[in-house]
Amino acid sequence: MSVGHTLLGLLESGPRHGYDLKRDYDAKFGHDRPLHYGQVYSTLARLLRNGLVSERGTEAGGGPERKSYAITDAGVSDVEQWLATPEKPEIYLQNTLYTKVVLALLSGRSAQQVLDTQRSAHLAAMRTLTARKAGGDLADVLICDHALFHLEADLRWLELTAARIDELAERVRS
Amino acid sequence: MSTAALLSATGLHKSFGPTEALRGASLCVQAGEVVAVMGPSGSGKSTLLHCLAGIVQPDAGATYYQGRRLTDLTDAERTALRRTDFGFVFQFGQLVPELTCVENVALPLRLGGLRRREAERAALAAMARLEVDDLAPKRPGDVSGGQGQRVAVARALVTEPKVIFADEPTGALDSLNGERVLRLLVSAATEHGTAVVLVTHEPRVAAYSTREVIVRDGRTTEQVVA
Ligand SMILES: Nc1ncnc2c1ncn2[C@@H]1O[C@H](COP(=O)(O)OP(=O)(O)OP(=O)(O)O)[C@@H](O)[C@H]1O
Ligand SMILES: [Mg+2]
């Protein structure tokens, strides 16, 4: 996730102090990973250097947390461009898992066991997300749903691989 | 085997002609548990559910409900048990097309000898929980698939059963409706200590369970020591 673009996007609704920006970010997007202050200020420094934000009236005693930042016109076009650019669809081949399955088959171990273990870990993660949805607001629900659909996609691959395990075993051993 | 188990099965075998649907399947369900039964198509999930519910008689092995061996009961006793203690939800609601929705939901209570007024009052309350009470006078043919499914869930809940057997209950639903049905099933389980046996191949559905059991080639991953 591009923290820079996200901070810029938040600044579009009005200038903010670095501290408020972090709080805003954490509340809206930081569910799993709140920002560090260091990250906020280094990102703001970069945006400042690139002319995408400008500093506003430093209050007395002005450390960085006292500065207020505003988005510039260049910043606004940057956000626009970012929003208009699609994310690269991830061709997320379960590399490690695929390697484990093949290695298990090669060594005469149970590949099914590898898959079963992974399924149970995936389902456990999905249960946690499902429980979080029950107690969460709409933003939580949407974020958890996104994660759930992705984990489900992994599991579908797992099930299909499990169904093809005999075929795979023949190929691997030949 | 844990004496606290509400429902358990050990070493179930069941063949249909040459097809061995179950080959030593075992399962143990505690009150209030939501057990997801997963596994490939044709692996024996539905057959396992039918044996657990006493709908199908296994060739070998036994099912126990509250310490009673289901195979030792007479047909009439098993039928009565299914009516009073078990609730069922299937992929396609299986509502009686000639009855209205509220009559469908009231049916298990009527069969149990409750008078029409009381039965329909309880049915309406169950339907309200599933937000389908406004469909009461309609016939199943005149409601949508998702609505019909919620009516079917209301029917499964109306007797306040000890165990709900659900075989792909959301199979014919879109995600939002499916979630609603699942949330209600699961909250019923947690509120009333109802056990739910939930057959599904969808991981997002299984994520509502407290635990999963995998069926493969007629055997379960769960080992129950008799
Ligand atoms: N009444 C029946 N008569 C003959 N064969 C049957 C019958 N019921 C099930 N079978 C067979 O037993 C095996 C297990 O069937 P079952 O319906 O239990 O599978 P399942 O795991 O529920 O599959 P699915 O995910 O497709 O619903 C299959 O090979 C099926 O064809
Ligand atoms: Mg089935």
TrEMBL record, chain A:
<protein>
    <submittedName>
        <fullName>PadR family transcriptional regulator</fullName>
    </submittedName>
</protein>
<feature type="domain" description="Transcription regulator PadR N-terminal">
    <location>
        <begin position="7"/>
        <end position="78"/>
    </location>
</feature>
<dbReference type="Pfam" id="PF03551">
    <property type="entry name" value="PadR"/>
</dbReference>
<dbReference type="InterPro" id="IPR005149">
    <property type="entry name" value="Tscrpt_reg_PadR_N"/>
</dbReference>
<dbReference type="InterPro" id="IPR036388">
    <property type="entry name" value="WH-like_DNA-bd_sf"/>
</dbReference>
<dbReference type="InterPro" id="IPR036390">
    <property type="entry name" value="WH_DNA-bd_sf"/>
</dbReference>
TrEMBL record, chain B:
<dbReference type="GO" id="GO:0016887">
    <property type="term" value="F:ATP hydrolysis activity"/>
</dbReference>
<dbReference type="InterPro" id="IPR015854">
    <property type="entry name" value="ABC_transpr_LolD-like"/>
</dbReference>
<feature type="domain" description="ABC transporter">
    <location>
        <begin position="7"/>
        <end position="226"/>
    </location>
</feature>
<dbReference type="InterPro" id="IPR003439">
    <property type="entry name" value="ABC_transporter-like_ATP-bd"/>
</dbReference>
<dbReference type="InterPro" id="IPR027417">
    <property type="entry name" value="P-loop_NTPase"/>
</dbReference>
<keyword id="KW-0813">Transport</keyword>
<dbReference type="InterPro" id="IPR003593">
    <property type="entry name" value="AAA+_ATPase"/>
</dbReference>
<dbReference type="GO" id="GO:0005524">
    <property type="term" value="F:ATP binding"/>
</dbReference>
<dbReference type="GO" id="GO:0005886">
    <property type="term" value="C:plasma membrane"/>
</dbReference>
<protein>
    <submittedName>
        <fullName>Putative ABC transport system ATP-binding protein</fullName>
    </submittedName>
</protein>
<dbReference type="InterPro" id="IPR017911">
    <property type="entry name" value="MacB-like_ATP-bd"/>
</dbReference>
<dbReference type="GO" id="GO:0022857">
    <property type="term" value="F:transmembrane transporter activity"/>
</dbReference>
<dbReference type="Pfam" id="PF00005">
    <property type="entry name" value="ABC_tran"/>
</dbReference>
<keyword id="KW-0067">ATP-binding</keyword>
<keyword id="KW-0547">Nucleotide-binding</keyword>
